[in-house]
Specification:
Oligomer: single chain
Distance between the termini: 26 Å
Shape: globular
Radius of gyration: 11 Å
Structural class: alpha+beta
Helix content: 25-40%
CATH architecture: 2-Layer Sandwich
CATH topology: Histidine-containing Protein, Chain: A
Number of strands: 4
Number of domains: 1
Length: 84
């Protein structure tokens, strides 16, 4: 399952939102990833979430597979579309 979200934080994905994404992904059993420019980044890895370097206004695909994939995608999407 996958869904595309637009990064709404004016600072993009930096340390604080990256940590929030990792925390949200880690609360789910599903494996989840963010895809940017065709590259896949593990949502449960802080290093990879910081490395994604997504900017404000960029579209990011959130992909997850597993029993709670929908919930994982929605939780990550809520962070990506948050202004903080």
């Amino acid at each position: 399952m996958k869904k595309i979200y637009t990064v709404m934080n004016p600072s993009g994905i930096h340390a604080r939102p990256a940590l929030k994404i990792v925390d949200a992904a880690s609360q789910h059993r599903s494996d989840s990833y963010l895809v940017r420019d065709g590259l896949r980044f593990a949502a449960k890895s802080l290093v990879q979430m910081i490395s994604i370097s997504a900017k404000y206004g960029e579209e990011i695909e959130v992909f997850a597979e597993g029993e709670d994939a929908r919930e994982a995608i929605e939780a990550i999407g809520a962070i990506l579309t948050s202004l903080h």
